[in-house]
Design goal:
This protein has helices at residues 55-65, 87-98, 101-105, 110-124, 129-135, 140-145, 152-164, 166-177, 244-258, 275-282, 296-303, 338-367, 374-385, 409-416, 435-443, 445-458, 470-493, 518-526, 538-545, 570-578; strands at residues 8-18, 24-38, 41-49, 78-85, 187-196, 219-226, 232-239, 264-267, 288-293, 319-322, 331-336, 394-399, 402-407, 421-426, 549-555, 561-565. By secondary structure, it is of the alpha+beta class. The radius of gyration is 35 Å and the shape is elongated. The two termini are 32 Å apart.
Length: 589
């Protein structure tokens, strides 16, 4: 502070005046006065009337007389030395702390900080490990966790450290979400997916059925275990040509031996839990059960020769429970979904019509004599005949000078009888789970499919995989699984700010397609809440949170900087309120 040069000061005197019309006006007189002592009395002397001078001049004079520093014209009182995006990483970090994720990963230390940063980065800014390393310096995550100077070797070491702790992490998650207290139904969902690899040196890479449509690439497969609501609990990585049943065998063994869960109901699709796998489950001390579905040949057998499954069962209802000697000790819940039946019939007709359209030019060439010989005709027809996988429904007759195509209508009609029909099998007693509950449990596999969408494309961008070492591939997938766990909770918490259905209605008929609630439909229609704020996607909300920055202010004449947050928007404030956290100035308090 500057020393006061004199006992002068500015006095502001406010007065009021009412004119003849009764209108009241206010005035302010600004006087420059000097205070002095006259004998034993304090007197004031008016040196100047500043009332006519501009406000900024009067304010500057008053500030100078109070000893405040005056900034020369053209020089700012403060400048922003640096501004870093903060809100998105702060929200993810706050949710991670709320879930106890740091402690879940392992003991405190630099490797845990790096692993946690990799998980948060996978949510906020998914990318390669090298790009992630550079990005840490562009947000507050790097500075606040003290990892802004990390090297690539440290990144890979942290991945190896995390992968070595996978069993311990998953045991804790299993106790949290699959143990009887949290999961009274003792139920777990499991499904398998795949993603392609770039490169050819990874020992896990193999050519198999590509769920991503990348037929020219080697791939890995990974199975995801969740609780009934779809919270990721465990993940297993397999070679790219691993069959679904083999993957299920490994995860079932992990649930029993690694997680120590003695009684569980495993839910998987018809390709996952086969008859051979069920036989293996029966050998697990008789404490494990399953919920799965029958394949089409088994359903046809139930229908044939006045079997237990008659289509008349669906005349008045969409669900019926039956038994069969072929499945001793099991309940069979037969379902018919009219909407699914209509969709399958439409798709079959479209594919048949598309195949016939491809064959029509070939038949025309044969009829015109431009294509002859059974071998040549068969070669051309074979190139397009099974493009849409409906050749079994077409009767193709080829001679040296003729090509005829006819539909096998009887066979098509026989297949159409099964449209929309599926049969769920389980040994779970009816007193533990009624028929509707069995159907709901099987359809809950949609939660795992949703998790795969989030992991692979919507949020976490797992694919493609660039690592070549097996342990690094497994570490990468584990990071994505833990990020999916964190994302699951963020999506639930932020449902009021996004298009997520906050209260999806429980269907009266478990077979019928799921419906959105009236509030969710209103969100999609209005696209703004009652305050006029736009609803956002999950990624859109993260991007908006990223506009909440932390600014380093440098005041004139002061060498140090002061961290200051920008004023949060109402959406940003609510986003933190929904996860039960205050907006932090730094990630670590």
């Amino acid at each position: 502070m500057m020393e006061q040069p004199t006992a002068m000061h500015v006095v502001r005197i406010k007065s009021r005046h009412t004119d003849r019309q009764g209108r009241e006006r206010q005035y302010e007189s600004r006087l420059l006065r000097r205070t002095y002592r006259d004998g034993g009395k304090i007197r004031n002397e008016t040196l100047a009337n500043l009332s006519k001078m501009p406000d900024r001049i009067v304010d500057a004079v008053e500030a100078a007389l109070k000893g405040e520093a005056i900034i020369p014209a053209g020089q700012a009182a403060a400048s922003i030395a640096r501004s870093l995006p903060h809100g998105h990483v702060a929200a993810a970090y706050a949710m991670a702390r709320k879930l106890g994720l740091p402690g879940l990963l392992g003991p405190a230390g630099r490797q845990r900080d790096l692993a946690l940063a990799l998980i948060i980065s996978r949510i906020v800014h998914p990318g390669s490990k090298l790009s992630t390393l550079a990005w840490w310096g562009d947000v507050t995550l790097g500075a606040d966790l003290g990892i802004g100077d990390a090297t690539t070797d440290e990144i890979y070491a942290a991945m190896d450290w995390l992968a070595a702790r996978q069993d311990a992490i998953e045991r804790k998650l299993a106790r949290r979400h699959l143990a009887p207290d949290a999961n009274p139904a003792r139920m777990a969902l499991f499904d398998l997916s795949s993603s392609w690899l770039e490169g050819r040196c990874c020992p896990l890479g193999a050519r198999g059925y590509s769920r991503d449509g990348k037929k020219g690439k080697v791939q890995i497969e990974y199975g995801l275990l969740t609780d009934p609501e779809g919270r990721p609990v465990a993940v297993r990585v397999f070679e790219g040509n691993t069959a679904d049943p083999a993957a299920f065998t490994e995860i079932a063994g992990a649930v029993k031996d690694t997680f120590g869960l003695k009684r569980m109901v495993m839910v998987g699709d018809r390709g996952m839990i086969t008859t051979a796998r069920i036989k293996a489950i029966r050998e697990l001390d008789g404490t494990y059960a399953w919920i799965t579905a029958l394949r089409a040949p088994a359903i046809r057998k139930l229908i044939a020769d006045d079997g237990p499954l008659q289509l008349s069962l669906f005349d008045e209802q969409d669900l019926a429970e039956i038994t069969s000697e072929d499945f001793p000790g099991e309940r069979l819940i037969a379902c018919r979904n009219p909407a699914l039946a209509g969709e399958r019939a439409r798709k079959r007709e479209d594919l048949l019509a598309a195949t016939e359209k491809l064959l029509a030019p070939i038949a025309a060439r044969v009829a015109a004599g431009r294509l002859a010989g059974a071998a040549e005709i068969g070669k051309k027809a074979g190139e397009v005949l099974n493009k849409y996988k409906v050749a079994k429904h077409l009767e193709v007759t080829i001679t040296d000078d003729n090509l005829t195509i006819e539909r096998k209508q009887a066979q098509i009609d026989d297949e159409a009888r099964l449209d929309g029909i599926y049969v769920i099998r389980t040994p779970v007693p009816a007193e533990d789970l009624d028929s509707a509950g069995v159907v709901t449990a099987y359809k809950n596999l949609k939660h795992v499919e949703r998790d795969f969408r989030h992991i692979k494309s919507d949020d976490l961008d797992l694919r493609p995989v660039f690592h070549r070492l097996e342990k690094r591939v497994k570490g990468h997938v584990l990071i994505c699984m833990l990020a999916a766990y964190l994302t699951w909770h963020l999506r639930q918490a932020w449902a009021p700010l996004t298009y997520t259905d906050e209260e999806p209605p429980a269907p009266a008929n478990p077979v019928a397609p799921a419906q959105r609630s009236a509030s969710a439909k209103a969100k999609a229609s209005r696209q703004h809440d009652q305050a006029g704020r736009p609803y956002r996607s999950f990624r859109g909300l993260l991007a908006h949170l990223g506009t909440l920055t932390r600014n380093e202010l440098r005041f004139a004449g002061a060498p140090a900087t002061v961290p200051v947050l920008t004023e949060p928007t109402s959406e940003q404030r609510q986003a933190f309120e929904l996860i039960g956290a205050a907006i932090p100035l730094t990630l670590r308090k």
